[in-house]
Amino acid sequence: MRGVTTTSVRRSDRSSRPAFRCTECGWTAGKWVGRCGECQSWGSVVEDTGPGGGAPRTTAVAPTRAPARPISEIDVESARARPTGVDELDRVLGGGIVPGAVVLLAGEPGVGKSTLLLDVAARAARTGRRVLYITGEESAAQVRLRAERISALDDRLMLADETDLATVLGHIEQVDPDLLVLDSVQTIASSAVEGTAGGVAQVREVTSAVIQAAKSRDLPVVLVGHVTKDGSVAGPRTLEHLVDVVCQFEGDRHSRLRMLRATKNRYGPTDEVGCFDLSESGIVGLADPSGLFVSRSQHHVPGTCVTVTLEGRRPLATEVQALVAPSAVPNPRRTTSGVDSSRVAMVLAVLQRRVGARLADQDVYVSTVGGARVVEPAADLALALAAISSRENAPMPPGLVAVGEVGLAGEIRTVTGVGRRLAEAARLGFTHAIVPAGALDGATPPAGLTVLFAHDLAEAVVAVGIGR
């Protein structure tokens, strides 16, 4: 009897102990751990004391600030987006920045986030708006030097280098800006919260305070955020849920092209892409970036084929180049740049098995022009035609684009947005296009563009005149 009593007491003590819960995904543990066992996030497991004992608390009724009104009487002018002056940024945001909206701009270090936002801040200041640019990454003198280099100087652009949250809020009270840029949210810390700047608790506190200030003042805010090694936004996942818009700024260090995408947007689309050209003199938007991905050689050489990819809803003409050469080693090389190596291997296998192209003893090198990254299956047909063109040493017909997905049986499958792709090809001056059979569904092709249809890869090779 005494043992039963002791066991029951131990169980009662064990059940009354506080558990630990992950603030990111809700995973619980009996003891504290540094890393969540469910979402694998570091520093997110905190003590969870539960709702506590006693009678449930009741919330007192508070007076309303304004009575509820019919939805048809709500004024929507204050919620309309205001253009930033950068057309490519406005395209991604859905027309501009909405007053009171908080935009998170994330990207790798050195990709050009600060340069883009400094240009946006200067353009907004030139329209008569007061802009407050707070930098925690660099000193004010360093930002001034960059502003001189990209011609972003204006007296209405206020600059401060601060890392304390209370001081940042004080600058907002003093300047009363029409636009706030905070670079970056991981460098600001609050003295009321434990932990270093950039930690989970600090990032959450800083973001919550800035959002409260933005909503109370109808102040549009742009936050700069770092990304982790896997490309996701650094800090707690709740950071992405707190803000209104999350944008990713991407680009290769060896290329001048930069792309801006919206992964979350409460006020606009999430399938638009903005293109920018980053140089020493600044950053400019590219309304027509297709020319960057197509070579301007006057001579038609074997092994090249142009396709039209879709970046969100934006069609981009991209040239795929292939080089097939006899191999001097037992295991031929398969080298790729800008394309998926697994899809290249699959397309080469289909060419050898279904078309009869001898590639098993050949080195194959596949690349894109201008540092473009092609990942969608719609480029399979162009990749296959470029490879067979190089293997047969026969150039593709001039003015030809190819769009289609290649299956393991050799069939060519249709892809989405064929009409938009062909319209872009016709606008760029292409005269012929080869697409999967039935891709247009009876629709009329663009004027000046002759469309060839192919059911399988062998038929496409014969249609372009590079087969044996």
From TrEMBL:
Residues 363-468 are annotated as: Lon-protease-like. GO terms for molecular function: ATP binding; ATP-dependent DNA damage sensor activity; damaged DNA binding; hydrolase activity; zinc ion binding. PROSITE patterns: RECA_2 (PS50162). The keyword Transport does not apply. Residues 78-227 form the RecA family profile domain. GO terms for biological process: recombinational repair. ATP binds at G107, E108, P109, G110, V111, G112, K113, S114. It comes from the Bacteria. SMART domains: AAA (SM00382). One of its GO terms (cellular component) is cytosol. A motif (RadA KNRFG motif) lies at residues 264-268. Keywords: ATP-binding, DNA damage, DNA repair, DNA-binding, Hydrolase, Metal-binding, Nucleotide-binding, Stress response, Zinc, Zinc-finger. DNA-dependent ATPase involved in processing of recombination intermediates, plays a role in repairing DNA breaks. Stimulates the branch migration of RecA-mediated strand transfer reactions, allowing the 3' invading strand to extend heteroduplex DNA faster. Binds ssDNA in the presence of ADP but not other nucleotides, has ATPase activity that is stimulated by ssDNA and various branched DNA structures, but inhibited by SSB. Does not have RecA's homology-searching function. Plays a role in repairing double-strand DNA breaks, probably involving stabilizing or processing branched DNA or blocked replication forks. The middle region has homology to RecA with ATPase motifs including the RadA KNRFG motif, while the C-terminus is homologous to Lon protease. Belongs to the RecA family. RadA subfamily. NCBIfam families: sms. This is DNA repair protein RadA.
